[in-house]
Amino acid sequence: MQRALRACVERPPWPRRHLARAAAMAEDRDRDVYKVPPTRTPVFERTSSLPNPATFIQTAFSYIVDAPVTFVREWIERQQAKNKYYYYHQKFRRVPDLSECLEGDYLCFYEAEAQWRRDRMVDQEIVEIVRERLGACKHREGPNQFQNCAKEAELLAQVTKAYQDRYGDLGVHGNARTCLMKQKHRMMEERKAQASASE
User: Fold this and answer.
1) Which DSSP string do the residues of 165-195 spell out, in sequence order?
2) Three-state DSSP class for 74?
């Protein structure tokens, strides 16, 4: 065993004649066939005396369009950096409802109408968000949607019913006054139903 190891260490894996042949092939190779790659990028030699139109168009675009726009944008950014303004969601204060306005107080009527329109948009977004959550749950659960998405479906039913009770059947031209009248009629119908049920 030791003799075999000593022979492997002392003897190179390649015979000397193979190494000599490889060295001779490296020296005698044909330089025209195996060209050495260029060490530097070759200089582009122009074949025509005319200027390149792409370079001219690029330079003209840079000076005519890009430079003025960049200058104006940088000037605006410098002006905005002096006066920092932080953007937040606008919070409107709550104003009296239409039922609390005095007769002939048109400013109160206008504020109540604007507040009603904002509330309607918020309620529409709430319904849309709950509907998107239910759709995402159905897509995620697949065949098990009736079991795993029951809570989202019940929430959507409640939100839709509340929205329909308040804003349903008002039409496109619904406003705060018609919504208030609808709620008044609904409350009167509920009282009549309770009175008839108690008798």
Assistant:
1) HHHTT--TT--HHHHHHHHHHHHHHHHHHHH
2) helix
